[in-house]
Amino acid sequence: MLERRNPLSKIVAVTPLMAIAALAGDVYLPLALTGLALFTLLVGGVAPKRILGALIPLALVALGFLMLYPLIVRRELVMHTPAIARIGDLVIYAGALRFGLVAMARVLALVSLSLIFSLTTPVDDFVRALVQQARVPHRVGYAALAALRFAPLLRDELAQIRAAHRVRGLARSGVVGELAQARRALVPLLASAIRRAERAALAMDGRAFGAYPQRTYLRRVTLDWADVGLALLLWAAAAAIILALQALGWLGPLSFVQRV
């Protein structure tokens, strides 16, 4: 199960693959890495519904690259390729469409690989791994964790403030109304955030947080051979994909960015 693996091992495992996807000069390599990422998620126990729920909105962003690139690509880079469409004075070339396909494939690969970490890593475990394995000072790690836990509380607080404004007849529609409502909600929301921060600071001080250079942990995040094996398996699979595409002549040139 991917959720049991050390968060840092998942970062180490997917970072080189994301770098390779960013270097891809053709669609085959990033699409193959996308398939590898989705296969890893499914084998790792992530429900297909969760994968689709996270992937579909970001896939729409990737589709935007496909639609945008043919319109902004430099003409001298693609004018030697066949023209596939004409919209007034605008000519869309096959080369420009290829640039868009490569950009879309890159984004899909990067998003899919990032899901291996984001969908299977609780924030608490990530902070524990940073403190226990990466030697991040526990003052910094747990203070950041406390701040992250404020986010859902402040979201609920904002919903209550908006509901109170609607009861008082202050809610308005349209952009101007939304801006006015946001301005009215800013002061009480800021006051609530300050109160919560003061209470958290007093609670941490009352428990002698940071009083000693070392601390004990109720739960430890371990780094074992299964975590190392996850990284090695993903690297080996990526290497096999690259070698197979190279043998088929589908790897394409590797470049960090394509000039548009």
From TrEMBL:
One annotated Gene Ontology cellular component of this protein: plasma membrane
Keyword terms, alphabetized: Cell membrane, Membrane, Transmembrane, Transmembrane helix
Keyword Transmembrane: yes
Subcellular compartments: Membrane
Pfam families listed in its UniProt record: CbiQ
Listed transmembrane segments: 12-39, 51-69, 90-117, 228-251
Bilayer topology annotation: Multi-pass membrane protein
Major subcellular site: membrane
CDD domains: EcfT
InterPro entries: ABC/ECF_trnsptr_transmembrane (IPR003339), ECF_transporter_component (IPR051611)
Protein name: Cobalt ABC transporter permease
